[in-house]
Design goal:
Number of helices: 11
Structural class: alpha/beta
Number of domains: 2
Distance between the termini: 48 Å
Bound molecules: pyridoxal-5'-phosphate
Radius of gyration: 19 Å
Shape: globular
Strand content: 15-25%
Order of helices and strands: EHEHEHEHHEHEHEHEHEHHE
CATH class of the largest domain: Alpha Beta
CATH topology of the largest domain: Rossmann fold
CATH architecture of the largest domain: 3-Layer(aba) Sandwich
Length: 332
């Protein structure tokens, strides 16, 4: 289905699908599995690596030598992009949005942003709410004026090209479930810039699967998040030549676990991060996967998954950001 699209190998695939016995027993609901996209292998891993396989594939095909992308200061996408650019011998220009207000010194310098500097990316900072379409074009113009060829990757690599990475993930997960005769009752994951959810729903639908997919929002309100995902899912379906396979009713984003806003810790995230660390030895992050996990745990306790024998939580990575939150997480 995806073989016609340019792609470069960056991720360790397939990522493992692991059963979490201690968490499943502790919660007393369906069997909980985790799809380990935190183990994609590029610079501490995460979900953006799958998307970058297609984005960077297109960049190479176009003869680009400089990657331009954008994200929050602690963006996992930006960190994986900076690493991919190094691996492919390209330069990397990063635009940072100061999306979190009153950010701590650790937030501004540790975790992902520290790694971006290790990769030697060129970093520029902008105020929250900046028009990044325009600013990315300005940087592209500057890059061209130096005789180089830019390739622009939107925030989270969430366009139809990047979403192909999650069309592919859906196919991979269905194969794993099939091999293990696992009847997946629900797939749950963190949704932000929408490429992960859009790609997954297109992949599931294209494979004829009816497994319900639940995105847990980390940023905007439900209507806005669902609209983002639906729009990108339609674009992605068209891009792979399967327009019409996605219905708006396939897209569900529960945005009840955002708390005070993007990147602002919540008590339930804090509890979920410690619970998974201490029960299963797994690391989740404060901004995305930790909040999604908090949502999944709360929904499970409220009976939301009662009709499922097993559920799969897609671990989208992000643990590098834990270091940036070291002074904001309560450890007991
Ligand atoms: C980017 C990201 C997400 C959200 O994925 P989108 O495709 O942007 O919706 C979830 N978890 C982590 C750790 C991320 O970095």
């Amino acid at each position: 289905m995806l073989s016609e699209f340019p792609r470069v190998s960056l991720a360790h695939l397939p990522t493992p699908l692991e059963y979490l016995p201690r968490l499943s027993e502790y919660l007393g609901g369906p069997a909980i599995y985790v799809k380990r996209d935190d183990c994609t292998g590029l610079a501490t891993g995460g979900n953006k690596t799958r998307k970058l396989e297609f984005a960077m594939g297109e960049a190479l095909q176009q003869g680009a030598d400089t990657i331009i992308s954008v994200g929050a200061v602690q963006s996992n996408h930006v960190r994986q992009t900076a690493a991919a650019a190094c691996k492919l011998g390209m330069r990397c220009e990063l635009l940072f949005e100061r999306r979190v207000t009153n950010a701590s010194d650790l937030y501004m310098n540790s975790g992902n942003v520290f790694l971006d500097r290790v990769f030697g990316a060129n970093i520029r900072e902008y105020d929250k709410g900046t028009d990044f379409d325009t600013e990315m074009q300005n940087v592209a113009e500057e890059v061209r004026s130096r005789g180089r060829k830019p390739y622009l990757i939107p925030g989270g690599a969430s366009n139809a090209v990047g979403a192909l990475g999650y069309v592919n993930c859906a196919v991979e997960l269905l194969q794993q479930a099939d091999e293990r005769e696992l009847d997946i009752g629900h797939i749950v994951h963190a949704t932000g810039s929408a490429g992960t959810q859009a790609g997954l729903i297109v992949g599931l639908k294209a494979m004829g699967s009816g497994i319900p997919l639940l995105g847990i929002g980390v940023n905007v309100k439900r209507a806005e998040q669902e609209a983002r995902v639906i729009k990108l899912a339609h674009e992605t379906a068209r891009y792979i030549g399967r327009p019409g396979i996605v219905n708006s009713t396939d897209v569900i984003a529960n945005c009840d676990y955002v708390g005070d806003g993007y990147g602002v810790p919540t008590r339930s995230m804090n509890e979920a991060v410690l619970l998974l660390a201490r029960l299963e030895g797994l690391l989740f992050d404060p901004v995305y996967s930790g909040k999604a996990l908090a949502g999944m745990i709360d929904l499970l306790r409220n009976g939301f998954f009662d009709d499922a024998d097993s559920i799969v939580f897609l671990h989208t990575g992000g643990a590098a950001a834990l270091f940036a939150y070291a002074d904001q997480l309560a450890l007991d």
